[in-house]
Specification:
The chain is α/β, with parallel strands linked by helices. The chain is about 45% helix and about 25% strand.
Amino acid sequence: MNKISELKDILSKNFAWNKARLDCFVRMLLALFTVRTVNLSEIAVDFYSTATVELRHKRIRRFFSQFVMNFDHLAKWIFHGFSLTETEYLTLDRTNWFWGKAKINLLILGIAYEGVAIPLLWNLLDKARNALATEHQSIIQQFIRLFGKKCMAGILADREFAGGHLFSWCNEQRFLFTFVLKITLQCEW
């Protein structure tokens, strides 16, 4: 119960939510850390409450169905929660999967932190293919609007982002842009 109060205090400084919404979010976060999945049914099982699992599941679904989150506030909370106040390397990546028959395609801008990328900003792409350079630029500009250029040490990306338009734009903006190449070596012994 102490963890719930402690996390509520931290979050209330960053989010202007009512107490019930904050309480639900905190309990979901703590359950998420335990069950390590985003499956709402499994989160409901570990969601600290005296209510039945069915009622907990309804509460969680209601949270998501009746609430619009300000993702700029969430990005700032994540950024400052990891004490990311100096220059950091940004990561640019894209992921896609199916949810039933629906294709989910996300462009994600993260922060490189201790060997992993922490998602900070993301855009849902309404197509099945790679994002355009203008979409890459847009998410980078969103970061700059929230945190400023001074927080950027550079941008790291996979080879799928190695396009001339993005390179030119990064060069104009004076951003260090690094991408990973896939190299296949053949050795004959």
